[in-house]
Amino acid sequence: MKLTADNYYSRETDWQYMSASLFKDFEKCEARALAKLKEDWKPVSSPVPLLVGNYVHSYFESAKSHQDFIEANKKELMTRPTKTNPNGHLRAEFKGANSMIQTLQADDMF
After folding, report:
1. So where are the chain's domains?
2. Is this structure's pTM higher than 0.85?
3. DSSP state of 87
């Protein structure tokens, strides 16, 4: 299996590749990691930190990747429309991600 942007987060890819996250899961608890991999168990967690990380990552990947990410995740990135703001606005977590992007852009060592 060739690793691509389309299959990077797929369950099939997890079976073929040992990501750092999967490795760490197995180090913590093999039974839980295997149950998660088999989809017998799903951890309860907020998807927001992962979305913030992917938002920042996609920005530095390319302008197209970032725009594609925004379009694919618009519902999670934006607040609900209101009478005063019919389009909604970027959620606070992603405004923070924009600050991270600016900080990284200003860092000569990045």
Report:
1. 1-44, 48-106
2. no
3. T
